[in-house]
Amino acid sequence: LLLAAGALVVTLVIALPAGTIAAMRRGRATDRTVMTGVLLGQSTPPFWVGILLVLVFAVGLHALPASGYGSFAHLVLPSVTLAVYSVAVVARLLRSSLVDVLASD
User: Fold this and answer.
1) What are the C-alpha distances in Å from 66 to residues 8, 22, 78, 96?
2) With the CA atoms of 40, 45, 46 and 48 taken in that order, what torsion angle do they form, in degrees rounded to the nearest 10?
3) What is the pLDDT of residues 26-54, one digit of tens each?
4) By the 8 A CB rule, do 10 and 80 touch?
5) C-alpha to C-alpha distance for 91 and 11, rounded to whole angstroms
6) Is the pLDDT of residue 105 over 80?
7) How is the chain split into domains, by residue range?
8) How far is Cα 5 from Cα 24, in angstroms, rounded to an integer?
9) Which of 47, 44, 74 is nearest to 58 (CA)?
10) DSSP 55
């Protein structure tokens, strides 16, 4: 439950601003950059994202623990790994909906 809640929080914190910014700046470089990042997030397998996050933040930077369960820090990498795909889906759906709403005015 903690892992799912953490992934949901990460998803909302990243996807809502990303989708909104992409919709507000439709057709500009910002929109293309956000949508490229979203495409990469949606097309990358979660196990690969997890491996990369562990290699960078646990092995390389020693910023977060690579394994275990006992504190908030142990939930960060798994939550972000689960959230990557969800961020992409929510950001794309939000952008699409906002573009439709903005075009109707």
Assistant:
1) 21, 33, 10, 37
2) -100
3) 999 999 999 999 999 999 999 999 999 99
4) yes
5) 9
6) no
7) 2-104
8) 28
9) 74
10) I
Q: Which residue type, as a one-letter code, is found at position 41?
A: G
- Do 19 and 93 contact (CB within 8 A), yes or no? yes
Residue type, 5: A
For residue 91, what are its two tokens?
């950001």
**Tokens encoding 93:** 């759906």
Residue partners of 90: CB distance under 8 A and separation at least 6: 11, 12, 15, 16, 19
Residue type, 62: H
CB 35 within 8 A of CB 22: yes
pLDDT tens for residues 3-27? 999 999 999 999 999 999 999 999 9
Tokens 């960060």 belong to 76
